[in-house]
Design brief:
669 residues; alpha/beta; UDP-n-acetylglucosamine1-carboxyvinyl-transferase, Chain; Rossmann fold; 38% helix; globular; binds shikimate-3-phosphate
Amino acid sequence: MSTSRSPLVVRGIIRAPGDKSISHRALIFAAMASGPSRIRDILASADVHATAAALRAMGADIPALSDDFIVHGHGVAALHSPESALDCGNSGTTTRLVAGLVAGLPGRVARFEGDASLSRRPMRRIAAPLTGMGARIDFESADGHDGLPMRVHGMPLSAITVVNTHASAQVKGALLLAGLASGSGVTVQEPQRSRDHTERMLLARGVHLEMTDDGVVLPAAQRLNPVDVVVPSDPSSAAFFAALAALADDGVLRLENVCLNPTRTGAFDVLRRMGMRLDVENERTIGGESIGTVVAYPASLQGTAIGGAEIPRCIDELPMLACVAARSAGETRITEAGELRVKESDRIRAVVENLRRLGVDAEELADGMRITGSQAGLSGHVVTHGDHRLAMAFGILAAIPGNHITIDDPGCVAVSYPTFWRDLAQATGSATHPTAGAIINMSEPTPLVIAIDGPAASGKSSTAQWVAQRLSVHHVDSGAFYRAITLLALASGVPPEQWAPEALLAEAHRITWRLTERSVLPLVDGQVHDDAMRDAPVTRQVSRVAQMAPVRQWVNEQVRSAGAATDVVVDGRDIGTAVFPDAALKVFLIADPWERARRRLIQRLGRRPNDAEIAEETEALVARDALDAAQSAPARDAITIDTTTVTQEEQVERIVALAKATRDRLRGQ
Ligand code: S3P
């Protein structure tokens, strides 16, 4: 390929996070069994948190999700009705699987709720067969459509044979769970084989089911044993990096520990058919699943036809394959993929609309799409509709030099791959650049992370905000993330003295972030809570939370992923040392404690403070400095600015000038 743009070189090892389908099921089966199940390497993403929370609400003993934990199951009989509605967030798998479980537990009732995207998704596909077995399901939305909110009443169920018109592992899983919970036999037939993790995991747990050519037969009265599980990496997540390698000009990516279950590897087959070299090494079987390292190389790609039995094997990867098709020679046709219309967004419409916005020749088909690829540079703004797979698919295109692509909601990757932007930065070698900010907006050839640090009341937050505005980049206030966690902690009703980092972090998945015009804004349960976050109760407790090392780690991860998503000015404690040690420009603001106290009081009181007030505040600040000493050292390469005698305007001008010089220097590299 001959282009004048700089080449995309990929390198390194990507270990994508745990498989989402297996993670949901590992939690559910552990809660249903009697005895301890150890779960390692679970995907701790928003969707899986939703399943954990739903099971906890039904009395299951599920600890905070971590890399290694034990669930002590007490059998299905111990599961009770949740006291309040189960919030399934964005997760169709949580809704459908847990609904199947509840349906098979007589006397239990649960109301299922979700976000706007989930509430639109069709639930009749589980409601009809579950009702056929004897459960009662009421749709409770104002317009009466067959989605959430939905109330499931568990009943004694009878055996059923379901012939499904389309392949769906969620529907199959819901029915198998209802059968297991109630002790009734279930047979499911499908036109094509959907992913079979439920079957494999149940077999590993001592359940006598039969996998047939066209489905599964679960006999009545089965017992489920507790089993330890190590969750392999999600092939649907790893596939984004296979695509990145395919589209690169040079290098190689090793994707480790990938689940290679044949019902999941359709995207790898399609990429090979398009001309890509993908090798598999170190293949082995763990917990009934085949696992291996996928080695992915750059290629010259050709369009292809994707349809039929291949569709369920790559259903979640189709947005990514469509983006790859946009860079492949000739035409790609995706057909028999109508299911895409009822995923987290209408993925046929959303993918085609976004491709067209970028200048790609793409067309919607009733059950798929047609794309004609080219090597022309792509530019434009991608609207994800909060759909994680769209953000990541277009994120891959955005990483190609010469493309100028911005993405409206990069934070939505938290649904399935919270560290996606960081991994993308690593794979594209942005780690050798000072920052990872190139990922979303390649129009800046060498992007910046500007880290502004300093002691309490040094004015770093307002300065950072102002600098970001002057440079037209995003401001990330890491303190806002601590405030968001504090808000959740206060809402939990637990007295602050009893707050434990594990308990706080168990709720942290409710915090996401969004890019607004000039800032990175933390959201709680998808909502902006600016006022409550700035209120006195939060202000009083936030430093307690900010002193907890695991919480700091979590906040740093959020801030890093924002910094990987866009050019940023970041302020906060240890930003230049721990969070962005490679930031292009680090500024450390200092000021005389008296002056800091004076400024803080003016801000707080809205008037000039008297000397006694300043003295008192100075004392408090000096004490706080001593407390913070461990996190407050400037980075070795930070530029210290003493702001005692300069106005904020002068200070901002100075940092802007430094930032511009840094940017010029990097561009000249
Ligand atoms: C899943 C099944 C698939 C897939 C989803 C996860 C599962 O959905 O798209 O991301 O874990 O069972 P369908 O079963 O609705 O096709």
